[in-house]
Amino acid sequence: MFAAAATGAALALVLTACGGNDDPEPGATGDGDGGDADCAAYEQYGDLSGKTVTVYTSIVSPEDQPHIDSYKPFEECTGATISYEGSKEFEAQLLVRLEAGSAPDIAYIPQPGLLQTIVQDYPDTIVPASEGTSANVDEFFSPSWKTYGSVDGTFYAAPLGANVKSFVWYSPKQFEANGYDIPETWDDLIALSDKIVADHGADGAKPWCAGIGSGDATGWPATDWLEDMVLRTAGGDVYDKWITNDVKFNDPQIATALEKVGEILRNPDYVNGGLGDVSSIAATTFQDGGLPILAEDGKDPLCYMHRQASFYAANWPAGTNVAEDGDVFAFYFPGLDAGTRPVLGGGEFVAAFSDRPEVAAFQAFLASPEWANAKAVSTPNGGWVSANSGLDPKNLVSPIDQLSATILGDTTQEFRFDASDLMPAAVGAGSFWTQMTAWIAEGKSDADVLDAIQASWP
């Protein structure tokens, strides 16, 4: 259980058990640096010389380059060319492209709800997953991941990356210097926030910093806060019914969770360290949201905590030491009591919009251990992990990634997939985002926000 990660000492034991990144062996699993790859595993894809596969995603700089680098073994061994395009407006623009008849060959879809919308509204554009893709998912992923990529019993989209979202980033050095302990319960977290206000508020520092800006997808980080809190205050059964609208957004159980989130995100004493007032959270990109934790030389940090997923490790500046005794690390986002530790997570899914052989081959490759290991090797700063059981933990360079891989592989954990990603796109990638943004930027009331989201349910 994740309880072992609640304290620094116990977390160190978990990380040791996960294994370090000594002596990674990408060899037969794909060399992410594009050097001489072992091509034996790629012979199944055939000779694809002169063929190009286009990829469209929401993954932009600085997280895009490791993806591009991870394709090099496939390109080298098959002769294919992979053309990558990332966009902050992906969710909206993908539908525009489908409507216009200019679909990409491959798209990385971060919301199963969006996949459902595509299948229902643009059924002639998307194709079922290739035979090789399906075989890889059956062999290397737990059955639930195939379910997330299926609509009405047809499997379309294979899991790609995965992440653990129930993390709070902090500076171990600053916590040690100030005598702060890792909180084990929600009350501990609030008490720590109050202590930071008392210790550093006069200097302009705040306990928390946050950013929910993400182009057309602005607001999604705020939905993660609410999802994590619903798991903690209402439990997994209510969470599951909330996803299907059997529990409404304006149900008192969801309102209670939003009120808890507001204790932090709408508290002017707590946020937004180094960035502005509460409303500045909406104008700050999620990539920049945690950066005030890093203190300049000889100065105190402007904030002390930032709730964000494991993949945030990729957004720290080059040279940042992400480790339990480093510049930054993360602790578990605590529940109401120390014994209840649900985990929120998410991931992307690979959908194909062409059944050309080279597209089918590339989709299958992305569901293979060869790609998972090539991607790990190609991500030297960490911030990426997969639920692919063929991923060698030795190829994960970050302790956070190693810990996340262990959590994702722990079937005893109460794990739930990101709720907004499973809801219909009109809600999960629409009103939920926009109303949570209005809650921050405009101070819209809890009740009005929840009523508006519920009214948008198709």
UniProtKB/TrEMBL annotation:
Gene3D superfamilies assigned: Periplasmic binding protein-like II
Q: What are the record keywords, sorted?
A: Signal, Transport
Give the top-rank taxon of the lineage listed in the UniProt record for this protein. Bacteria
Which InterPro entries does the UniProt entry name for this protein?
A: Bact_solute-bd_prot1 (IPR050490), SBP (IPR006059)
Q: Does the keyword Transmembrane apply?
A: no
Keyword Acetylation assigned: no
Q: Where is the signal peptide?
A: 1-19
Coiled-coil ranges from the UniProt annotation? none
Q: Which Pfam families match?
A: SBP_bac_1
Q: Which family does this protein fall into?
A: Belongs to the bacterial solute-binding protein 1 family.
Q: Which PANTHER family match?
A: ARABINOSE-BINDING PROTEIN-RELATED, OSMOPROTECTIVE COMPOUNDS-BINDING PROTEIN GGTB
Name assigned to this protein: Alpha-glucoside ABC transporter substrate-binding protein
